[in-house]
Amino acid sequence: MRLYQPYSLTRIVLRRLAVLIVGTLALPVMLFRQDRARFYSYLHRIWSKTSSQPVWLAQSEAAACDFY
Questions:
Q1: Rounded distance, CA 31 to CA 40, Å?
Q2: Is the model more confident about 33 or about 52?
Q3: Which residue in 10, 19, 52, 67 could disulfide with 4, CB within 3.0 to 4.6 Å?
Q4: Are 20 and 14 in contact (CB under 8 A)?
Q5: pLDDT in tens, 46-60
Q6: Which pTM value belongs to this model?
Q7: Alpha-carbon distance 62 to 60, whole Å?
Q8: DSSP label at 54?
């Protein structure tokens, strides 16, 4: 039983398109800020999210198959 629902392909594509637009528009400002790594890390988390499951849980489930 899963406690999360996968997102539709349309939602994933729209989410990634929004990340590209925001990241591109923010680039000139973020070049001069000290916290740009945190901002782009946040955009990466949004980019990689493909379900309502938390990203850390998805990554831990993917890593579990490496050990078993």
A1: 11
A2: 33
A3: 52
A4: no
A5: 888 877 777 777 777
A6: 0.69
A7: 5
A8: -
